[in-house]
Amino acid sequence: MKKTIYFLILLLVVVSGLVFSFAPFAFGSGTNHEINNESKPTPKPLSIAGKKANLDERKKWEASPDGIKYKEWEVSPEGKKVHASYDKIKKDIKNFTDMEAVVTSLTFQRKNATSSGPKWLIVRIKGEEYMMQFSPKGFEQFNSLKVNDKIIVRSRSAGYSPNHPYLILSGDYIAHNNKVLFKRDLSKNNRC
Length: 192
Prior knowledge:
Elements: H1 2-27, H2 48-63, H3 65-75, H4 77-95, E1 99-105, E2 119-125, E3 128-134, H5 136-139, E4 150-154, E5 158-159, E6 167-169, E7 173-176, E8 179-183
Parallel strand pairs: 3-6
Antiparallel strand pairs: 1-2, 1-4, 2-3, 4-7, 5-6, 7-8
Helix pairs in contact: 2-3, 3-4
C-alpha cells in the first residue's frame, strides 16, 4: 500500500513539473504581454470562395433596411461631412500621432439616451467635430476638463454611423496640460 501511495505522489510531482514547465508556452509567460510585431502571424489571404462569401454577405446587408438606410446616409450631406472629417485625420490615426483638440462638449447625449448610458466627449480637431464614447465610470477622469480646454488625443481607429452626428474616434490616449487623463490598456487584447 505504501509503495502505491509513494508511486502516485511521485507521478503527481513529475506530471505537475511538466505542466508548469510547458505552461508559459501554452498560456503565455504571464510576465510579458507585449507582442513583437515580427512574431504576429500574417493574416492568410481569403480564398476565392471566401471573397465571394464576403461579397454575398455585403450585398445581402446592403439590400436590408439597415443597409439601405446606411447607403442613403453615406451620400447625404451629413454622411459626406463625416467621411470628409475622417479624411482630415486618417494619417494621424494610421500613425497613432498626437492630435491637438479643443473640448466642445462634456454633456452631449444622443436622442432618447438614458442618463446611465455612455458618456460622450466632443472635441474639435483641424476644424471638425469628433466624438469619443466612454463608460460613466471611465468618464470620471475628465471631470477636470471644461469647454474650450486644449487636449492631446491619440486614436487607433474611427467609425461611422448614421445614428451619430460626428465621426466616432476611439479615445486611446488623452492628455491635458502634460498630464495623462486616459490611456487605454491594450495588454488585455494581447492574449490568445
